[in-house]
Amino acid sequence: MEAALYWSPISNIVFNAVLCFTALTLNGATIYALRKTPSVPKPLKALLLSLAVSDLGVGILVHPLFITRFALESRLQADLDTSFPTFDRVSFLVAFQFAYPSFFGVLSLSLDRFLAIHLHLRYQELVTYQRIVTAVISVWVLSGLITLIWLIPFHIAYVLLAIAIVVVSCFVVSGVLNSMIYATVRRHAHQIHSLQVQPTVQGNASNVTNASTLRKSTFMTIHIYVLFLVCYLPFVCTLGFISFYPGVAVLKAVKQYTVTLLLLNSSLNPLIYCWKLRGVRQTIMNTLVHAISSQN
């Protein structure tokens, strides 16, 4: 029964080692490609770079810490919160420091694309690159402050409740924004189709191109949100169950795998950028071709 509860922790450790490599390489390549791709609007590029940096931090710090954590728990057959409480706290603090920027980054990206499709020409006037950079810096500072809350000697239940309220609220707001984005994009798709079947008039071609580009970036945002929801929600739910039923052994075993699912998000996000942003994909391909040709 005990062996069944822990579901081969060695395979979990190996899988995290693979994810550590993919998070490093894919996000490193994405950061380079975003910086070298002029076709991506600067405000959108700043938001995507922030997400990629947080995902790169997961590969550099969070994955190694949790690989060590899983290995120690497997060897000791005990939770680190009682055996090594300092290491347990540090590993989760580092994870939260990179998880919160991803969390708020997804919300910021959803809000940005929502404004882009609803403000139209006023978007460039109101959503400037300087304001986006200020928002990104604020997100990282806010994430650091929320992470530090875990060090305050309040009762853990109050901390979990406060953070849970923030997390659920952001999940709901992001969900509402992405639902509205999807409905608007579908309506725009019908408008694009009607423009394409009409006789060519001045401005039609540019309107179709601009609408198509915006449509791709908004669908990218929706995919990022859905992926984030799939990867993060099981971990959040598991923490909630553990807070109410701390003595259930199966929940502690499940938590290890929900943590791995959460960290998997950092390796999958770059694939969405490459899939939805043709310029980023082309930059990475050109870099790979150049690197291979230089070796020959």
Structural summary, described in words:
This protein has 296 residues and is an all-alpha fold. 89% of the residues lie in helices and 0% in strands. It contains eleven helices and no strands. The chain has helices spanning 2-6, 9-36, 42-76, 80-83, 85-119, 122-126, 129-149, 156-197, 204-244, 249-276, 278-295. α5 (85-119) packs antiparallel against α9 (204-244). The radius of gyration is 21 Å and the shape is globular.
What's the layout of helices and strands?
Elements: H1 2-6, H2 9-36, H3 42-76, H4 80-83, H5 85-119, H6 122-126, H7 129-149, H8 156-197, H9 204-244, H10 249-276, H11 278-295
Defining key terms:
mainly alpha, 11 helices, disordered N terminus
Hey, roughly how much beta strand do the residues contain? under 5%
Instruction: Estimate the mean pLDDT confidence.
Output: 81
Rg calc: 21 Å
Give the topology string: H per helix, E per strand. Answer: HHHHHHHHHHH
Largest sheet: none
Strand tally: 0
The helicity comes to over 70%
Which runs of at least 5 residues are low in confidence (pLDDT < 50)? 1-6, 199-206
Secondary-structure-based class equals mainly alpha
Anisotropy-based shape: globular
Q: How far from one another are the termini?
A: 55 Å
Number of helices, where a helix is a run of at least 4 consecutive DSSP H or I residues: 11
In short:
The protein is mostly helical and 296 residues long. It has helices at residues 2-6, 9-36, 42-76, 80-83, 85-119, 122-126, 129-149, 156-197, 204-244, 249-276, 278-295.
